[in-house]
Amino acid sequence: MAAPSGAASCEDFAEFQELLRVMRTIDDRIVHELNTTIPTASFVGKVDAGQTCKELYESLMDAHTTRERIIKNCIAQTSSVVKTLREEREKAQDDVALLKQLRKEQTKLKLMQSELNVEEVVNDRSWKVFNERCRIHYKPPKSQ
């Protein structure tokens, strides 16, 4: 269930969204993952639930950190493009193509910023499920 760690392309928003969708697979499947790996009372001796929860915790932390880094990197890149286009727009106020490009980049920037909110919701949901199922088997470090 490792997430792809390929470099994100910030140019094409659809590609950016697809990368995030694929990377959120671990969060989408967390309930199934916990149901299939954390033993019920009758199988408790056959599986090391503590180790399983620890591995899942590390996978979630890695996935969340990677996605946040990618989103923030793309926001920074797109913000830089918007800033440059705004400066060019100041010099050539009657350039319609430039205005169109600026609006397009501003829209993309807003969409990317909204992905941070989506990320927060996805992460909160995953941690809630993780804590419900793993709290008796594994105690994560206090940094979370």
UniProtKB/TrEMBL annotation:
Lineage: Eukaryota, Metazoa, Chordata, Craniata, Vertebrata
Protein name: Protein MIX23
Record GO cellular component, one term: mitochondrial intermembrane space
Protein's UniProt keywords contain Coiled coil: yes
Classification via InterPro entries: MIX23
The UniProt record lists the keyword Amino-acid biosynthesis: no
Native source species: Smithornis capensis
Residue ranges the record marks as coiled coil: 75-105
Protein family per UniProt: Belongs to the MIX23 family.
Alphabetic keyword roster: Coiled coil
